[in-house]
């Protein structure tokens, strides 16, 4: 693999995506939980206020009945007030006051207590202890004015405790009257027990002079989060990893055909297949041509015509050829015992590879990685490429020659050129294009052409490989014409390395 950082980076991006989605999910779940409990609190407050209002309203009506009992004479009236207390829900006692002084109580009979001891600021509701101060039981006093008489009812605090119970221990509810706060255990506070960062919610009754104060927790338990946002919880739990997988698969998916090819080269999906080349006279294996095949996991075996042009255009042809050479070399090392002396291995090179000069380094590296003299490396260059008369190509070919590399002109005869270049370049082999052999028998002209090419090559001391040999008649004709080597389906199609080893090397090997 050329670049192992890419999958790690992709993996990190995928994990980050999943974590980011979980983070967003956590924030949304938090918000959802807050608003769920806020809505519940609002409902609970409204219900509590209507229940408390109902208590005060009931007691208020009893105060109306108490006004009918008004008298200046306390002992008789106290008796009647006691009877009324027994019949009135929620009331513990009734007291009568005139000119700012309580003078008669259903509990204590005749008394003289300033009303202001119970009610500050002319309010109608107040807290006090009673009826026995030593017991410290909280009562709530409700006062009502009837002309020049004030009647006061006391209501035990425990009637309110149920409505002061929060959803959990962290949540405190208070009944607030005139700056005092009654909690659910009957304790009276001068301020709600709230930490500075806790949230408080206050709702006042529109009928009576009190309000409810909820001190809410600054955080919720896992259980509460789960109860309030179970659906969101599962949705984000699932979406996080799914998005991560999606990001990862999108990132590793090649974005263009070029990228796809680059990835394929990286993954070693471009593999060398081998086609035998034989001695014309004996039919014995003398070498092979390396032909690229793209073994794609998604599209199967892709032939070179479908990706070599793209590889050349995108300059991926150089890394591709280099990787093919790496695979060929390791195959040759595995099979070295079966390779006969003088075995030729022909590899196709593009003009980019030659012009860049990198071919020299790559061929040297290839040969240095093999035992001395194990094979002859043949560099195949198409005629059309070499025809771009270029001194640079000549220089490169000369240096390759010095390395012991054999130079073959591929597709010879298709360039419609004058043949003077055959003398100018350091060449060794002419590969006769298969179009000349297709009609070898019926087309006499083609037979003459092949004869002419073989004749020229002999005169220039070049060897010939005739491609496209498909029948026995082709073989017979080419024997007569004196071609050096033959290549074609008659002998064998290009096959993967393992098959080539089995069919050819292990059959004829030393
Ligand atoms: N630069 C590179 N070019 C490459 C490489 N690998 C292949 N190629 C070039 O792709 C062209 C198509 O090759 P392929 O489909 O592999 O075809 C080869 C043979 O399969 C085919 N052949 C051989 N014998 C016969 C036959 O009897 N009948 C018949 N119909 N076809 C036959 O000919 C192709 C041989 O090509 P070549 O000798 O190279 O001209 C082709 O131009 C390849 O060069 C690569 O790695 N790099």
From TrEMBL:
One MF annotation (Gene Ontology) recorded for this entry: cyclic-guanylate-specific phosphodiesterase activity
Transmembrane intervals: 225-251
One Pfam family named in its UniProt record: CSS-motif
Keyword Kinase belongs to the record: no
Topology in membrane: Multi-pass membrane protein
UniProtKB keywords: c-di-GMP, Cell membrane, Hydrolase, Membrane, Transmembrane, Transmembrane helix
Cellular component annotations (GO), alphabetically ordered: plasma membrane
InterPro entries noted in UniProt: CSS-motif_dom, Cyclic-di-GMP_PDE-like, EAL_dom, EAL_sf
E.C. number(s) listed in UniProt: 3.1.4.52
Residues covered by the EAL domain: 254-508
PROSITE patterns named in the record: EAL
Protein name: cyclic-guanylate-specific phosphodiesterase
Organism encoding this protein: Jejubacter calystegiae
Lineage: Bacteria, Pseudomonadati, Pseudomonadota, Gammaproteobacteria, Enterobacterales
